[in-house]
Write a sequence for this structure.
């Protein structure tokens, strides 16, 4: 390969790499990510598992540690999207479910937080905690769970 | 005192609407904090004829109030306790006497097996546990054939123990189950107009269970409940005592399908009631009488703040005699719930009733049920503040 040709190839590859990087970075972040504390050995869960977790129908991780789900505030668009995708119902329907559970003495809902950062702080502070935040949120050492 | 507390709760709920979650003693999300929830309701009942649930409803009655305040606290991992104070006024019952609606010590050993002791709401059918919780449902009155509010003292909660669990079945869905045994603590309350004075009233046992199958079809659950109990009473009539035993068996088959913003539910139930008496001249014994009950209901969340619903409910107190207005109760109801904000709701509801089996003679000048108006209507307004 002649020198000028090699330089053209090198420049071309560099351009492709830059374009790919820019494209990757400009792809919008997901509407939400599910996070756990970094010591949680679970790396991925099924959607149904998360639904049962946030409705507190199941309360233990596979290693028998207690689960501590954390919600965002009901008016959060991230919560609305998460609730519709994962719990398969509206935020209002979930609220109705919790009204039944609270006043029949069966259970109380997960704590609700006003910001992504508060959810991240809660998850990092409590072993077994699981939450969801905006895909653009600063996660710190919190680890993202893959939802199957 | 209770009225004051009721209004304070209501005002507080509305003022602090922005804080949609529960009050907590402790930091938000603190695992050891005490979680506090409460509600206060005021209703209005108007009937076109026949007094229903309260005195003088033909002219309108405000004797329909409820207030509750509950506390829940996790003690250690798997162990928690909770209690709810409750007072109500519904016609001749309640009179704002505060009582423990429920209290429990709960050991949640595994998701498939937990143990609870105390006074526990009875899991019977889909909605018995919320029969006194207005904010947890669309309608003002749940279908009265299966969930009669007049019997709430007998059917709402039992004092004893309960085993419960939730078992995932992978592709086959999940099972939700409860089994309980205990007693029911009831007031020796005598309805106005009763010929008897109740000297003693107790429930030596109540036992039963509920099994609900959450099917693989998202939102569909079906199941059944069974309950057996016996009521023992000593009555006084004209200075003569009579002992009465009333054993009963109740079952209900249930189905609910929640799809998008629609919820369909239907239940069919039969209750078998017998009575034995030591003095049949004063209190006649009866063989087993079987009543038939059922309903179909649809509710729709048209908007976050608007939820209309309709249902049809039927009651035959004795399946061997379905003729005559006193032996049937058909109820067609339409209801609408407005959630004014996340802590305050208002409901409007109308019923067209055919039959008088759901009425009480004692609220209607002791007139026999076959002498009351056959076709009648009920209009209800109810507002509830809760947090």
């Amino acid at each position: 390969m002649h020198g000028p040709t090699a330089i053209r190839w090198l420049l071309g590859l560099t351009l492709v790499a830059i374009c790919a990087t820019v494209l990757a970075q400009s792809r919008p972040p997901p509407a939400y990510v599910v996070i756990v504390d970094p010591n949680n050995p679970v790396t991925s869960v099924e959607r149904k598992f998360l639904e049962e977790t946030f409705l507190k129908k199941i309360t233990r991780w596979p290693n028998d540690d207690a689960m501590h789900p954390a919600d965002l505030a009901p008016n959060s668009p991230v919560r609305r999207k998460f609730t519709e995708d994962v719990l398969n119902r509206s935020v209002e329907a979930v609220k109705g479910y919790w009204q039944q559970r609270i006043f029949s003495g069966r259970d109380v809902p997960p704590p609700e937080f006003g910001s992504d950062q508060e959810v991240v702080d809660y998850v990092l502070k409590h072993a077994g905690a699981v939450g969801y935040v905006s895909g653009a949120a600063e996660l710190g050492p919190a680890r993202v769970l893959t939802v199957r | 005192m209770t009225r004051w507390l009721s209004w304070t709760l209501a005002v507080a709920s509305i003022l602090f609407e922005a804080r949609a979650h529960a009050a907590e003693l402790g930091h938000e999300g603190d695992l050891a904090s005490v979680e506090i929830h409460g509600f206060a309701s005021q209703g209005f009942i108007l009937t076109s004829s026949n007094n229903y649930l309260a005195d003088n409803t033909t002219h309108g009655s405000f004797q329909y109030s409820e207030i509750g305040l509950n506390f829940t606290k996790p003690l250690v991992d798997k162990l928690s306790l909770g209690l709810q104070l409750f007072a109500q006024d519904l016609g001749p019952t309640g009179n704002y006497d505060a009582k423990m609606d429920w209290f429990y010590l709960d050991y949640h050993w595994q998701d498939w097996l937990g143990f609870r002791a105390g006074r526990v709401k009875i899991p019977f059918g889909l909605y018995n546990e919320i029969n006194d919780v207005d904010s947890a449902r669309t309608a003002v009155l749940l279908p009265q054939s299966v969930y009669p509010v007049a019997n709430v003292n007998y059917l709402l909660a039992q004092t004893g123990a309960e085993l419960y669990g939730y078992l995932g079945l992978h592709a086959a869905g999940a099972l939700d189950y409860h089994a309980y045994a205990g007693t029911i603590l009831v007031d020796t309350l005598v309805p106005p107009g009763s010929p008897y004075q109740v000297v003693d009233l107790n429930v030596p046992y109540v036992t039963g269970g509920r099994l609900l199958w959450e099917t693989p079809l998202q939102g569909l659950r079906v199941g059944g409940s069974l309950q057996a109990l016996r009521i023992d009473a000593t009555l006084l009539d004209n200075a003569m005592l009579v002992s009465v035993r009333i054993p009963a068996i109740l079952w209900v088959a249930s189905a609910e399908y929640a799809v998008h913003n629609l919820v369909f539910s239907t239940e069919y139930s039969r209750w078998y009631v017998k009575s034995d008496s030591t003095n049949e001249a004063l209190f006649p014994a009866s063989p087993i009488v079987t009543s038939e009950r059922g309903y179909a209901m649809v509710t729709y969340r048209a908007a976050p703040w608007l939820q209309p619903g309709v249902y049809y409910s039927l009651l035959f107190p004795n399946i061997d005699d379905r003729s005559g207005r006193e032996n049937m109760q058909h109820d067609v109801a339409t209801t609408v719930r407005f959630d004014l904000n996340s802590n305050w709701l208002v409901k409007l509801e109308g019923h067209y009733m055919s039959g008088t089996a759901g009425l009480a003679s004692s609220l209607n000048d002791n007139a026999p049920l076959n002498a009351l108006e056959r076709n009648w209507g009920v209009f209800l307004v109810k507002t509830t503040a809760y947090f």
Notes: Residues 98 and 104 of chain A are 10 Å apart (CA to CA). The mean pLDDT of chain A is 89. DSSP finds five helices and seven strands in chain A. The first strand of chain A starts at residue 33 and ends at 36.
